[in-house]
Write a structure and sequence with these properties.
Layout lengths: L15 E3 L7 E4 L10 E9 L2 H7 L12 E4 L20 H5 L7 E3 L11 E6 L16 E5 L4 E4 L3 H10 L10 H9 L2
Parallel strand pairs: 3-4, 4-5, 5-6
Antiparallel strand pairs: 1-2, 2-6, 3-7, 7-8
Length: 188
């Protein structure tokens, strides 16, 4: 369907590029698929280090999570996964889904299917495995999402982030041979 600029399907556009200390290189949110009530949100981070950590803990009844929190998944970008699988569609924790929570803010350095929906910030750059700020997230950190201001920020002081970076140097994944080695040597 072709529509005029005066009568768009969505007046704000389908995608928005976000920036902030969390994503100095940018991040993407599919705002046409997001819950309008979550487009301006501040919440506590619940961090998953990688897909395996997510699988092991997302449905654990002991997971300290509530509907106002922000789920964060690290290390699923081009370098971290490697290969950037469609793992950015972080599921709602089972205990929240049972309580009728349909959406919550989710953030990752990965991607998801174009047909998926939800308030999900993707393609955070630089990614965690390449030394991006996402690598230094900790559970209970505060995160602010403001789509109207095109911002996604970690509400932690610059000094604290520098200290975390010094304490936890990034070790970029490697491989001894084969396609994975070639991929990891050349992906940016």
């Amino acid at each position: 369907m072709v529509r005029s600029f005066a009568q768009p399907i969505y007046p704000q556009g389908g995608l928005a590029v976000l920036r902030g200390n969390l994503a100095p290189g940018g991040a993407i949110i599919k705002q046409s698929a997001a819950d309008p009530t979550l487009m301006e949100h501040e919440g506590r981070a619940v961090v998953f280090e990688n897909v395996e950590d997510l699988i092991n803990r997302i449905d654990d009844e002991a997971l300290d999570v509530n509907a106002d929190d922000v789920l964060v998944l690290k290390n699923i970008g081009p370098v971290g996964a490697p290969g950037m699988p469609e793992a950015g569609y972080i599921p709602i924790p089972r205990k929240l889904a049972r309580a009728s929570v349909k959406d919550m803010v989710r953030i990752s350095d990965g991607r998801m299917s174009g047909t998926a929906f939800g308030t999900i910030v993707l393609h955070v750059t630089p990614e965690a495995a390449a030394g991006g700020m996402l690598a230094y997230f900790r559970s209970s950190d505060r995160i602010r999402l403001s789509v109207s201001n095109r911002e996604v920020s970690l509400l932690v002081s610059d000094d604290e982030l520098k200290q975390r970076a010094a304490e936890t140097p990034i070790v970029r994944p490697t491989a001894d041979r084969g396609y994975r080695k070639l991929f990891l040597q050349t992906v940016t």
